[in-house]
Amino acid sequence: MNEQLGAAPAPVTRLIEEFHRLPGIGPKSAQRLTYHLLRVPHGDAVALAQAIIELKERTVLCSVCQNVTEDDPCAICRDDRRDRAVICVVEEPLDILAVERTRGFHGLYHVLHGVISPMEGIGPEDLKVNELLARVRGGAVQEVIMATNPNLEGEATAMYASRLLTPLGVRVTRLARGLPMGSDLEYADDVTLSRAIENRQDV
Amino acid sequence: MNEQLGAAPAPVTRLIEEFHRLPGIGPKSAQRLTYHLLRVPHGDAVALAQAIIELKERTVLCSVCQNVTEDDPCAICRDDRRDRAVICVVEEPLDILAVERTRGFHGLYHVLHGVISPMEGIGPEDLKVNELLARVRGGAVQEVIMATNPNLEGEATAMYASRLLTPLGVRVTRLARGLPMGSDLEYADDVTLSRAIENRQDV
């Protein structure tokens, strides 16, 4: 029997493979997505394909803060009302959206595009650390807030960066760790609770 | 403050929306996929976009069995060695791959492209039922195996189709239900075990 008979057509197999390369998409999900696209109107599938192309063609990294932007420098770096003395360092562009939603930070940002992770072979040279140092050496910066995630890799990255930043004469700070608002002491994990006791504050 | 400042660039937001429209992709996954594509080389993202376009442009439904194919009629329907007297009716193109892998079926197929599901507003007219009836009326078919999934919708669809097919003088069969091979009686669900007892066979 012809081996091809039992196989899906080449364009189907190829898209399944492409979807499978994306993070968090297993072989079954890749199949499901592909057969879903087979069923949708032609225009819907084209819209997805075009959105992917335009994402790559119409965005660049801001030459100042390394955030994703359509215009370089980005809107935040161009904004005169932002405080140029404070830089908030984050892992990913999405983290900027989270901080902006608080409306409580009015300085500038710097996106590292990852964290130091020896397990995944990501070293400091893979991150936008040199770009951060260059900005601080520029002179106007007084404080760098390390807003990497409060986990092993995030902490290590913050420690690494602060060791390079402190000699440059800037204040290096870290986001407060403690109990999340609305949480329940009973269900807090040990590390978070220990940190909350350690860093207890006067009422 | 400018409302745009806290928002992601338009191409980013647009791709997040497009991904979010796919089944099983929530808003968080859509964000993750989009920012992943921002990081990959340009060629990788283009490869995904092209695979989507080619899926739509290079595949059609086989005019005989309704399976997805590059050439119409499909390789299985064109194959002279297949038994034209038996049609195996499945819900989705993926089900054909599963049956073909068994190498135990040598007839033809028919893809319904779904099941009757009043909950999701899918009626018989949304399925390729009329195409199946036309094939059976064609005369050469002696048996139709209803290989829809053994769940509520699959059973209802099989019942519906068999009621239309039986008057045409064909034998309508259903895949056997029972304990899956390698399973453990202790953990079998009640319905499966009841069916296995009901349909018990002589050794």
Topology of helices and strands:
The structure is a homodimer of 203-residue chains.
Chain A: H1 10-20, H2 27-39, H3 42-58, E1 60-61, E2 68-69, H4 75-78, E3 83-90, H5 93-102, E4 107-111, H6 129-137, E5 143-146, H7 152-165, E6 171-174, H8 190-198
Parallel strand pairs in A: 3-4, 3-5, 5-6
Antiparallel strand pairs in A: 1-2
What does this structure look like?
- Two copies of one chain form a homodimer.
- Chain A has two domains: 49 residues, RecR Domain 1 (Helicase, Ruva Protein, domain 3, Orthogonal Bundle), CATH 1.10.8.420; 142 residues, Dna Topoisomerase Vi A Subunit, Chain: A, domain 2 (3-Layer(aba) Sandwich).
- Chain A contains eight helices and six strands.
- In chain A, 43% of the residues lie in helices and 12% in strands.
- With 203 residues, the first copy, chain A, is of the alpha/beta class.
- Chain A has a four-stranded parallel β-sheet with strand order 4-3-5-6. The first copy, chain A, has a two-stranded antiparallel ribbon with strand order 1-2.
